[in-house]
Description:
Layout: H1 7-22, H2 26-30, E1 37-46, E2 52-63, E3 69-76, H3 81-97, E4 104-110, H4 118-132, E5 141-145, H5 151-165, H6 186-204, E6 213-217, H7 221-232, E7 236-242, E8 245-248, H8 255-264, E9 279-281, H9 283-287, E10 293-296, E11 315-317, H10 326-335, E12 338-340, H11 342-345, H12 348-362, H13 368-392, H14 397-416
Parallel strand pairs: 3-4, 3-5, 6-7, 6-10, 10-11, 11-12
Antiparallel strand pairs: 1-2, 2-4, 7-8, 8-9
Amino acid sequence: MEQHYNPYDNVLKVVKEAADILGYSESDIEAIKHPERELKVAIPVRMDNGTTHVFEGYRIQHSTSRGPAKGGIRFHPDVNLDEVKALAAWMTFKCAVVNIPYGGGKGGVICDPSQLSETEIRAITRRFTAAIAPLIGPEQDIPAPDVGTNATVMGWMMDTYSMMKGHCVHGVVTGKPIELGGALGRNEATGRGVTLTTKNILRKMGLNTTATTVAVQGMGNVGSITAKLLHKEGMKIIAVSDVSGGIYNPDGLNIPAILEYLSKDRKNLLKNYEEEGIQRISNSELLQLDVKVLIPAALENQINSLNAKNIKADIIVEAANGPIASEADDILNAKGTVIVPDILANAGGVVVSYFEWVQNIQSVSWTEESVNEKLKNIMDPAFEAVWAISQQNHATLRTGAYLIAVKRVVEAKKARAIWP
Ligand code: NAD
């Protein structure tokens, strides 16, 4: 049996490891072990069939030491307090590793959007926004999309918050529709960052992008854009999956056709996708394929102590947050698998969210070209810095990323000292 999985314990373990190397005492890191605020809310909703259902939601601010809390809102049946705590903490360290002036936060509602109508999702969004309104705002905590939410949901959040305030507040959320002050390039930003990171790691390892085999788990916002951009780079995407399972073709999948099928209707699933030469595989089979690069882009704990020894990929780029559990990380490191950690690999989303917020508070708008260029100018040096510190310390890239991030957070905390 697999041990009980608590993602927040995973965060604490890697933070402690980095703190030890950095020479910090327990006292130096004590405050970052505890989220600053945890809010749990009840969300009553009148369902389409006339009944009332109460959903449970959370907003957690892990840290505001380096700036306002920042992080997405997840709508998924498995949302729970420990998961949201971990996701909030990962945001703190992610914003620190790419050095943008934010802390970390995260939110979620326990619900299954695939079983809900648009009216019900909007009702959940509005009531949840109202319930967490005392905590959020452009200067204190700025939500964004995550699993199960998207630009449409962010538009409803922005509207709800603005109606409550009595004026238009663009900067309260990022990842909004372009018409509401959304940044050009935000929708693609996380996948674009994953793509830049994948190219960087291949270059460091002396490998070509052309015809390099890739498997992507999860074909939502992050997975589908990553697959699209890597395909454009000439890489061979041989397997992709979603919640319904995966498809596999050793000669390479027709990524543009798959993306068109998935974008036609949010309820379209890969299990119903038809293409000549494909084989149906499970999510667990996808993770164990013999590929050069594996990109988990779905949920946490996908690679764990049960399947880690069967992973054949040489490189794993963590597009999802926390896809590899701690024990699996140890097994893979011992095997020599190169892992590019989530807080670096998927930081493109929050970087462009930061650009969106900067544009909103200045009432300016940048071109998509300029956004993409600015993103690259942050992602590439962040990768180089993580690579260099990992080499210097004979450490993994995960430890390297945390060495940079933990130092920035602890030093900010020290500089502010404890209030009062
Ligand atoms: P999404 O909701 O757009 O897509 C999630 C995908 O995962 C879907 O294809 C879904 O079918 C699939 N999925 C859900 N449950 C699954 C399961 N049990 N097994 C296999 N596949 C499953 O979400 P997203 O925004 O693409 O987020 C994916 C991951 O990337 C999450 O870990 C998220 O926290 C992380 N992330 C997202 C962003 C962002 O900007 N959206 C930024 C950084 C990190």
